[in-house]
């Protein structure tokens, strides 16, 4: 039931890199999904422990807070690859061909600038919570049972780093599309995709 | 340049980026980051040597936001409720709800669309996330409506609008988030959403019947189900009742004695029960993997918007815009009811550009105290209050109004998450198609909101019994 | 000159000293040096030290218990059953700890200098159901208590349960927890007293320590006049804070209990002593061991604090 991807592929290096990165991205997204499942199991353990054994899970809230970055960040690059992050396509929907690819190139560059800075910023946030000299390398801990927070904080620069790689690839792909007029390895907006599929179907006839 | 001027310029820039088609989450994050750089640099009078310092401080300030804001127990409800939606799809619960609604209701004019509305309302009793409800019904209800000749855009619109019922009818992630932001009783708020949710469903149904009676070539009613067939459709939908009872036991325990857990735990346990049902109905790893990936996708979309918007909100904090707004509201000399209506209208406008949760996180810290002050304060008695209700009741009433507005924003262009999700599920539908199809429901929502404002007892009757 | 100050929540007894110091500094410098206070706009409460370290704002408040590993030295003041009996004493102890070289070095990692504490009275437990008459009645009682106080409650057989503060009231109303440990003002603002039937008057298991810090570079960068205006206002700001807390908040507390018919539970000296013995000594030993391993003169800090209390300072 996963939605069909609107990304065209071919034999170029670009497309090969796209699919290689996609494998990593899907693995990350699956980690995110498994973390949601883990959240559910955690609640079952906590509730059963408290009601049946008078023994609630210590630090239940702390563990949830640790799991949330996994859920919130790990799939970010995969969603970008599939074109899932929401946007308003009233203007870009009217554009076609090179004008469209040029606009996409510009907005993708803007996202790239943001994400490079956020890798830096979130890494600095991680670094402040991390200390090689400290027990468990921890310089920041959770409120109830004092779990080290650095692993959770590390998830942000890690996932954002993969997204930066994806954005670099997309900048390349849109740049190439501006030159060649052919967009591969980037998500196409719905109308363009339908058009492409219709063309493919005509070829089959 | 004053910080407030910087705030207005950056906000304008954000709108331009969004219109140009930059993904909203990142446009908000970039606007916030640029704003922060600007504000810090302005402190050093834009000296060339100090740009590096401003860039560093701004980037490190923004870099805290993603981890800091998503690491919240309250927000953990969002992925949990989305997971319920997808697991219920594999457990056959969605299909069963829709089938039962079809056999019992589809004989009325516009029958299949009305059935869809009531099926989403029934499903809302286990689902706490609007987007997930729309996503699963897009797979089930739209094909059936298309089969008997419904307009494609309208069919998509029904599903997008019906999904919003999931956030009023308990359980609801967004109601819990509201309760946590404003520190009010979660249980009473959830209870308060029930009647307005059903009420919305009836208004939607009335609208559809009205359209079916006046528009030529509207989808035909579906008749000919025997009573035997009707009753046969009920048992497969029964597990829904079981899940509902489980969740209710967590929040209230109607059998007397202690509740089994907190509402956040209740959501997770509900998901677990549906998971067991799905296993029983033959879900295996490939389907579970799909459900987990779909859950991850929707969750990531929503969380990216949340932290993106909150970087922008952090910048607004440094620009002192919220304080300026609060002072302005409380200094107004208009009729308080008029002010309240203006606030709701402002939500409608804001909601065009923002998702529901981002909007609540952005506005409530400023707007909620202002509304409570309008009513006469947090501890005011009903007799002394402006709106004729006590402080805690006003908190509940305003919560339901705001959540209904937030749900309205899920279907309004240009940024209406439910419409994006429906379009994402169905390749043959563009986002514009869904927005066109959902337009009639703006009228229905307008009517509902007006009635909830005019007759607060629709909201307050049930929680006042508890 | 303008400093940004990052607090959270809303103006309340807990922030009265910061509001006061802003007023005093403004007055003393004729408006040349102002403190611009923001409630939650500049940072999350758990990231206030990060913001100070980055230089995003110049002054902030935080609680040591939010993140023990960020500020291990101050957490000595959060150990259970220290036996602190007044806000004045809490201030005196805090200031002594804040000026200890190990604490100064600890906070220097965040480019932060400790300015003053926000003294809170001892936490106590409000609950529903039968009021505990003796400590043995805590056996099996589910109580929302975090950190050191939770650990202390565990020693008498209570079941510490963790949830966010905003879910506490619903959890207590619905019976998920039977009791909650908070300072009096928090019992009032989170509504735990609305359904509670009893409150432990003298259990006094401990409290949290919430200092106000300034960015060290910003402090060093102040002109002598401005720095003197700031540092010279600390005592007056704290006097104002204590007068306000003992006055307004504690005056509201007694009537709030009576209005709702909440029973005050008082334990005998023997029982408190037994609780203390069971909980305090192991917690202190664990704290000292853990923080010595982290390179802190933990024994010295602990001895200083307990010594001052023994001297009745
Ligand atoms: Na619901
Ligand atoms: Na919208």
UniProtKB/TrEMBL annotation, chain A:
<feature type="domain" description="Tripartite ATP-independent periplasmic transporters DctQ component">
    <location>
        <begin position="39"/>
        <end position="172"/>
    </location>
</feature>
<dbReference type="GO" id="GO:0022857">
    <property type="term" value="F:transmembrane transporter activity"/>
</dbReference>
<dbReference type="InterPro" id="IPR055348">
    <property type="entry name" value="DctQ"/>
</dbReference>
<keyword id="KW-1133">Transmembrane helix</keyword>
<keyword id="KW-0813">Transport</keyword>
<keyword id="KW-0997">Cell inner membrane</keyword>
<dbReference type="Pfam" id="PF04290">
    <property type="entry name" value="DctQ"/>
</dbReference>
<feature type="transmembrane region" description="Helical">
    <location>
        <begin position="27"/>
        <end position="48"/>
    </location>
</feature>
<keyword id="KW-0812">Transmembrane</keyword>
<dbReference type="InterPro" id="IPR007387">
    <property type="entry name" value="TRAP_DctQ"/>
</dbReference>
<comment type="similarity">
    <text>Belongs to the TRAP transporter small permease family.</text>
</comment>
<comment type="function">
    <text>Part of the tripartite ATP-independent periplasmic (TRAP) transport system.</text>
</comment>
<protein>
    <recommendedName>
        <fullName>TRAP transporter small permease protein</fullName>
    </recommendedName>
</protein>
<dbReference type="GO" id="GO:0005886">
    <property type="term" value="C:plasma membrane"/>
</dbReference>
<feature type="transmembrane region" description="Helical">
    <location>
        <begin position="101"/>
        <end position="125"/>
    </location>
</feature>
<feature type="transmembrane region" description="Helical">
    <location>
        <begin position="145"/>
        <end position="169"/>
    </location>
</feature>
<feature type="transmembrane region" description="Helical">
    <location>
        <begin position="60"/>
        <end position="80"/>
    </location>
</feature>
<keyword id="KW-1003">Cell membrane</keyword>
<dbReference type="GO" id="GO:0015740">
    <property type="term" value="P:C4-dicarboxylate transport"/>
</dbReference>
<keyword id="KW-0472">Membrane</keyword>
<comment type="subunit">
    <text>The complex comprises the extracytoplasmic solute receptor protein and the two transmembrane proteins.</text>
</comment>
Automatic annotation (TrEMBL), chain B:
<keyword id="KW-1003">Cell membrane</keyword>
<feature type="transmembrane region" description="Helical">
    <location>
        <begin position="267"/>
        <end position="283"/>
    </location>
</feature>
<comment type="function">
    <text>Part of the tripartite ATP-independent periplasmic (TRAP) transport system.</text>
</comment>
<keyword id="KW-0472">Membrane</keyword>
<feature type="transmembrane region" description="Helical">
    <location>
        <begin position="328"/>
        <end position="350"/>
    </location>
</feature>
<keyword id="KW-0813">Transport</keyword>
<feature type="transmembrane region" description="Helical">
    <location>
        <begin position="154"/>
        <end position="181"/>
    </location>
</feature>
<feature type="domain" description="TRAP C4-dicarboxylate transport system permease DctM subunit">
    <location>
        <begin position="12"/>
        <end position="458"/>
    </location>
</feature>
<feature type="transmembrane region" description="Helical">
    <location>
        <begin position="74"/>
        <end position="92"/>
    </location>
</feature>
<dbReference type="InterPro" id="IPR004681">
    <property type="entry name" value="TRAP_DctM"/>
</dbReference>
<keyword id="KW-0812">Transmembrane</keyword>
<feature type="transmembrane region" description="Helical">
    <location>
        <begin position="395"/>
        <end position="425"/>
    </location>
</feature>
<dbReference type="GO" id="GO:0005886">
    <property type="term" value="C:plasma membrane"/>
</dbReference>
<dbReference type="GO" id="GO:0022857">
    <property type="term" value="F:transmembrane transporter activity"/>
</dbReference>
<feature type="transmembrane region" description="Helical">
    <location>
        <begin position="193"/>
        <end position="215"/>
    </location>
</feature>
<feature type="transmembrane region" description="Helical">
    <location>
        <begin position="437"/>
        <end position="462"/>
    </location>
</feature>
<dbReference type="InterPro" id="IPR010656">
    <property type="entry name" value="DctM"/>
</dbReference>
<feature type="transmembrane region" description="Helical">
    <location>
        <begin position="6"/>
        <end position="39"/>
    </location>
</feature>
<feature type="transmembrane region" description="Helical">
    <location>
        <begin position="112"/>
        <end position="142"/>
    </location>
</feature>
<keyword id="KW-0997">Cell inner membrane</keyword>
<feature type="transmembrane region" description="Helical">
    <location>
        <begin position="236"/>
        <end position="255"/>
    </location>
</feature>
<dbReference type="Pfam" id="PF06808">
    <property type="entry name" value="DctM"/>
</dbReference>
